[in-house]
Amino acid sequence: MGGGSVIDTAKAIGVGVYYDGDVWDFWAGKCEPQKTLPVGVVLTIAAAGSEASKSSVITNEDGSQKVGLNLNILRPVFAIMNPELMSTLPPYQIACGVSDIMAHVMERYFTNVKNVELTDRLCEAVLKTVVHNGPIALKKPDNYDALAEIMWASTLAHNDLLETGRVGDFASHRIEHELSAYNDVAHGAGLAVIFPAWMKYVHKHDIDRFCKFAVRVFDVEYNFDNPEETALEGISRLENFFVNMGLPVRLSQIGITNDKFEYLAKKCRKSPDGTVGNFVKLRENDILEILKLAE
What we know:
By secondary structure, this protein is mainly alpha-helical.
């Protein structure tokens, strides 16, 4: 009963019951669980989408490691989703949840796969719904209808439906995990800092996709003479949205100074080829540049 951290911990307990060793072995990639106790969820905060996802992200405080494990056996067997259980949340936690939801969708939206118009539209619909209802819930945390839309969006954002036929990126999540492992910042707050910086760094890789995001999600008027201006305006409106939701958009706002950038870039968990992400494969120096953009 709770949000993403509680659910992910329950998932870890579920697979740990049948394992004689240290449950962290699964997250460290030493072995893979084959069996779990069934997990049921009573959701109290819409954010992580863990109530329907195959993901479990946990932190090992020995070494400040925050790592995700993604296996279908980790999906909960049921989830009770009553928006009334969110009505006592502080506005800041609602805002962090909105950021996390949007990040889950955007990690899938920015893909190199072509001809995915249907799931493009589904992603855009979820993003627009959250952009509309987030400020309403912020002003009135007991607004059932706004909370219901956000809660449903949370589940759709991370149950893999929106990833159908696509290859997601998740570089921003990998980078943010290092931030929240380092200083325990709320995950959604860290994503509000990193995602716009990542966009600024990679947008030239596919200007058309960033323009589509700007026009369809944030109603930016397309500039036929200068498409990049359209793309950058979309990124700016996303960043301003986070600001208006009361979220940080700079590393300095969450207590991370530039003397820690190299450490965080080096520590970021990379794939076997030494890169992070799929939309643009980022190496350590690229991560460092993104952190500088977020300074």
